[in-house]
Amino acid sequence: MTTDLMDIAALTGVRALSAPEPDDYRAAMSLLPTGVTVITSGSGEETEALTVSSVTSVSLVPLLLLISIGATGRLRRRVEQNQAFTVNVLGSGQEELSSRFASHGRPRGTAAQELLGPRTGDTGNALVDGAVLSVDCEVEHEYPGGDHVLFIGRVAALHMPDEPPAPLVYHRGRYASLSGKDAAA
């Protein structure tokens, strides 16, 4: 006895999309809550920064972290030039900063550095004031990934406040944050 896929969807409330389009995929992936980061490379007049949610811890030995950024963007060129990047994990209340660096008209150079804060990390990249965590990385590998490029960085330094704020989260197309017991766990 076979059951039609439409019958299964009606019974389970789950629908299957064969050969999804990019908009379908984007909508589906919005269901996965992600941390919000601003990736930086360079400082001062050379600052480039971009809001990114595709960040993954890869390995503990050696310490490796992966980012995925647009293949044709300004940040890619800066990371390739510097062979370094910093992942700044944003905290609750930093939605405006995230939005600012998510736009195509985002600031660069000293204007970007002024918004991020005056500090730089061990790799010479801008650090975000008020971040939950900043991870300085030196590029270990670079791989093409469709319209993006994947950079795997070897962790050079960690910058963590004594009392980090709750992290900023992005889910279903809007910002959220973890609070109370969830943030401390």
How would you describe the shape? globular
Count of alpha/pi helices = 6
Strand order of the largest sheet: 3-2-6-7-8-5-4
Could you describe the largest sheet, including whether it forms a barrel? 7 strands, antiparallel
Describe what this molecule looks like in 3D.
- It is a single chain.
- The strands form two sheets. The protein has a seven-stranded antiparallel beta sheet. Strands 1-9-10 form a three-stranded antiparallel beta sheet, with no helix packed on it.
- The protein is 24% helix and 35% strand.
- The protein is α+β, with helices and mostly antiparallel strands.
- β7 and β8 (148-159) form a beta hairpin.
- The chain is built from six helices and ten strands.
- The protein has helices at residues 5-12, 22-29, 74-82, 95-102, 109-116, 181-184; strands at residues 34-35, 37-41, 48-52, 55-60, 63-70, 84-89, 133-145, 148-159, 168-171, 174-177.
Concise account of the structure shown:
The protein is an alpha+beta fold and 185 residues long.
Write the layout of secondary structure elements.
Layout: H1 5-12, H2 22-29, E1 34-35, E2 37-41, E3 48-52, E4 55-60, E5 63-70, H3 74-82, E6 84-89, H4 95-102, H5 109-116, E7 133-145, E8 148-159, E9 168-171, E10 174-177, H6 181-184
Antiparallel strand pairs: 1-9, 2-3, 2-6, 4-5, 5-8, 6-7, 7-8, 9-10
